Amino acid sequence: MTTYTAAVFENGMVARLLDSLVAAGSPAPNSHAQDEIDRVNRVLCSNASVAAALPNATLTALLDLLSEGLGDPTVRRPPAGFLRRLEEVAGQTPLPDFLEATASALRASQRRGIRALDDLPLSVWEAKLRFSQLESFSWWVEGDEYDTFEEGVVAGIGSEHPYGCADRLPPLISECHAARLLDKGSIASLHAVVPWATPPVLVEILRLASAHLLEAH
To answer: Are 28 and 90 in contact (CB under 8 A)?
Structure first.
């Protein structure tokens, strides 16, 4: 029987957590690693759908199970690439101990509460998740098919009509509002994902998308 258990380690928040800790510097824990753990918790609590799909308790339990499995020779080993990255970030700490410590740090982070953006600015990977609709709208803003910026935006909005409007336009409008409200500490991460997202451009997309929903539905 074909199994797909490697996907637990190579996709989703387990992989995202490990990538973030590797980027924060080895060995962990350090202050940068704690920031990344806090960012992971912020994403997990970003909305009700995410919190229901993967609560903090599920991610931390998964790390605990992995820790137990690494100490049991009868349990199938995780993918070699995952173990190499785990060893890189764990440094001299035994892998089971490191995983348990990371799970404990995630739980402690949640108990302390989600850090606000003015305390811990958005990272680039967070911005890609938080502003995915803006990023996917980039073609309509940056493309050269239309003579004017407004024509491109109107075409992009119209391309969703009628069946995609309910799914795509409200999130796009919400992300425009959220992007306009970012403080200076998080703007750089937004612009790394969506370079064109300046206040005048966001306001115009807001105006045109809102007008479409009000007038065409």
So the answer is: yes
